[in-house]
Amino acid sequence: MSGGGARLVVVPTVTVLAVIKARLIGATKGHQLLKKKSDALTMQFRQILKRIVETKEMMGETMKQAAFALTEAKYAAGDNIKHTVFENVSSATIKVRSKQDNVAGVKLPKFQHYTEAGETKNALTGLARGGQQIQLCKSAYVKAVELLVELASLQTSFLTLDEAIKTTNRRVNALENVVKPKLENTISYIKGELDELEREEFFRLKKVQANKKKVADRELKEKLDAAGRVADKLAARAEEVVSMLTANGKDEDVIF
Amino acid sequence: MSMYGFEAMSFNIKDGFLEAIVRGYKAGLLSAIDYNNLCQCETLDDIKLQLSGTDYGNFLANEPSPLHTATIVEKCTQSLVSEFSYMRTQASEPLATFLDYVTYGHMIDNIVLIVSGTLHERDVQELLDKCHPLGMFDSIATLAVASNMRELYRLVLVDTPLAPYFAECVTSEDLDDMNIEIMRNTLYKAYLEDFYNFCKKLGGATATIMCDLLAYEADRRAINITINSIGTELTRDDRRKLFSHFGLLYPYGHEELAVCEDFDQVRAAMEKYPPYQSIFSKLQFGESQILDKAFYEAEVKACVLGYEQQFHYAVFFAYVRLKEQEIRNIMWISECVAQNQKARIHDGIVFIF
Amino acid sequence: MAMSQEGKLVAMIADEDTITGFLLAGVGNVDLRRKTNYLVVDSKTTTKQIEDTFKDFTSRDDIAVVLISQYIANMIRYVVDNYRNTIPAILEIPSKDHPYDPNQDSILSRVKHMFSSDPASASRG
Prior knowledge:
The structure holds three protein chains of three kinds. By secondary structure, chain A is mainly α. Chain A has a domain at 14-192: Helix Hairpins, CATH 1.10.287. Chain A has four helices and two strands; from the N terminus they run H-H-E-E-H-H. Chain A has helices at 14-77, 81-87, 131-248, 252-255; strands at 94-103, 106-115. Chain A has a two-stranded antiparallel sheet. In chain A, helix 1 (14-77) runs antiparallel to helix 3 (131-248). Chain B is mainly α. Chain B has three domains: 12-91 and 313-353, Topoisomerase I, Chain A, domain 4, CATH 1.10.132; 95-198; 203-309. Chain B is built from 16 helices and no strands. The relative contact order of chain B is 0.12. Chain C has a four-stranded parallel sheet with strand order 2-1-3-4, sandwiched between helices. In chain C, helix 1 links the parallel strand 1 (9-14) and strand 2 (38-40). The longest helix of chain C is centred in the middle third of the chain and has 13 residues, at 47-59. Chain C starts with 8 loop residues before the first strand and ends with a helix. Residues 117-125 of chain C have low confidence and may be disordered. Chains in contact: A-B, A-C, B-C. Chains A and C meet through helix 1, helix 2, strand 1, strand 2 and helix 3 of A and helix 1, strand 3, strand 4, helix 5 and helix 6 of C. Chain C: It comes from Klebsormidium nitens (Green alga). Chain C: V-ATPase is a heteromultimeric enzyme made up of two complexes: the ATP-hydrolytic V1 complex and the proton translocation V0 complex. Chain C: Keywords: Hydrogen ion transport, Ion transport, Transport. Chain C: One of its GO terms (molecular function) is proton-transporting ATPase activity, rotational mechanism.
């Protein structure tokens, strides 16, 4: 029994056995549920992975277009336009709001870009030269920001899910490899102990029975002996009678 | 052409040397073969190698790899600045003043940069580093002592060559909350008018050619301001105020441009002006992007034409414009190469010959 | 679907051109202490400056996303790889001179790693 691995330290009684059995049922159910959760998360995870890879590929193209839009703006408006753009920075007009999505009990942070109200300072930049290109460049980069914020969202979900899946799997593994075997070991230990007790009881009963039989035998023997003695006595008496009869007459056989 | 006779007698005494120099510079601009070779380049280092075979020489020799487009553009600009400075130091009046006028456009950009930077409390040295080298003037560093626009004007701007442009166009009450782009263009309007009048006073071939070139510049700005202000906060009146009071479009074209509300109205308004009608006719509907290049092409053509005549100052102005276009071309080619967009390489090059 | 009340910023560590583009889009921010949400990296920028800025951006609570040019991320790869928080999110972006290479991306390489071992590995944890 001791070779069966780790078990809980318990008093092996029928009551405890019932408790442990209930716990095993609980652990098994928990294991199944967690396994399901893990599967759900993994599915979500895989979808996000697919979208990350797609979006990252798209990002390459979008950024390339944006970079070239800037080249076109610089060509039309002059290289110095960048200084004007840097001077015009005050408060961000594109910002990010975060919210949370719930997947199988895991809170996934999500980013959402939004544009703050108000005229941007660059509306008139390049007024006499290249203004149109600057606006085109601006929209190209706004598009890039939108994509990048979406990508950031996916990436954050990816990391959160990754973490959640690892935790869940750790629990699944713990239930599967530690908790459940431990409970099972405990159950078999208790069962073993109980069997042992039962066997001892049986042996004792047998012993008692054997004792009882011995006593009974002896009594029987005594009774038999006593009976034997009576029989002997009777036999002796009978012989006496026979000898007396024989002494009285030879024909006495005929009588019997 | 008899009116040019007297110039020809005396021009070379003072300005003949520099005219020869500037014609030499112009002959050193990249040729069709150079552009063809540049377009074959696969990397920026190829471009460096290619340029080292031209008048630029080994100007990139000390630049470490990886080379960046910005470095190439910066070094090309330096080459223009050193050529220009050489001519400026050799020049006697009135060519010296004429050359100063050529730089005022950059000076306006620098002042606007420093003004807005100062109001945003930026580091002065950082701002000076960003200034265009052609637009520097002695007191530029002191610009940063002022913390508001009125002080800036009273303490610093009055001593700059641009002071009259501020005085004429901007009442100092407006200065503080004026949009920086409106300030820039108000200054530029006054500058163009001043330069125009200066050239007219010089007379002769300089006046004829320069007034045409500046008229083109004024008209182009008017058209661009119109197109770029459509759908913005700029009102019709504000828009009209930014137009210089000369040029082919002055005054009737300005009235028409002031009321335009979309690109096609601008195109329709320009139907009556042959030089601009021909530029707009190159564009398909909705192709406003190509307008910039079409304007550059017309400018280059006009500048090159200036070299047909002798004994005038327009060649100096034209040279700066042509060289700036060349730098733009090199920037475009380098960016196309660096960004792997070689399919677009011919969309930006304006040939200069 | 809880919304956080305050909008957050997108910060940037990139070359001048890339930042110019994003500033044009309206991402740039300067606060009252003149602190910006971007760092322009050029040949004069030291690795230490980049690292400090990265750490600063990733510890600010008004920033939700940090965009960093991939070639710059490569300069401080050990810092980027060791960054384990989910917010602010770090995003490696291409720059015009350096086309995007998915193999260098610290997130994507983790993805690759998961897929390159057996498909069940993702659920093994």
